[in-house]
Amino acid sequence: MAGDLVTQTRHLGLSLGDRACLALGIALKVPVYTAEKAWKKVKVGVRIHVIR
Questions:
Q1: What does the alpha-carbon distance between residue 44 and residue 52 come to, in Å, rounded to a whole number?
Q2: Which residues pair with 34 in a beta bridge?
Q3: Left if phi > 0, otherwise alpha if psi is -120 to 50, otherwise beta: which for 46?
Q4: What are the distances in angstroms from CA 35 to CA 22, 29, 39, 43?
Q5: Whole-number pLDDT of residue 9
Q6: Mind giving me the DSSP string for 1-52?
Q7: Counting beta carbons within 10 angstroms of the beta carbon of residue 26, is it exposed (0 to 12), middle (13 to 18) or buried (19 or more)?
């Protein structure tokens, strides 16, 4: 699933680890938390909380 997110997140420069975190949130249907402000622009079907 993380590999499938490459096309949706390439313009933001997300790493494999970032995409893996998003994929886990999608799979478990739970929100994800991050300190990366670029994630505010991600629209992949999971709620994202930016903590800074």
A1: 21
A2: 50
A3: beta
A4: 13, 20, 8, 16
A5: 84
A6: -TGGGHHHHGGGT--HHHHHHHHHHHHHT--EEES-GGGGG--SSS-EEE--
A7: middle
Contacts of 47 (CB under 8 A, 6+ apart): 25, 31, 32
Contacts of residue 34, Cβ cutoff 8 Å, sequence gap at least 6: 18, 21, 48, 49, 50, 51
pLDDT, residue 5, reads: 86
For residue range 4-49, list pLDDT tens digits in order. Answer: 888 888 888 888 989 999 999 999 999 999 999 988 888 888 999 9
What pLDDT is recorded for position 13? 86
Question: What local confidence, expressed as pLDDT, does residue 29 receive?
Answer: 96
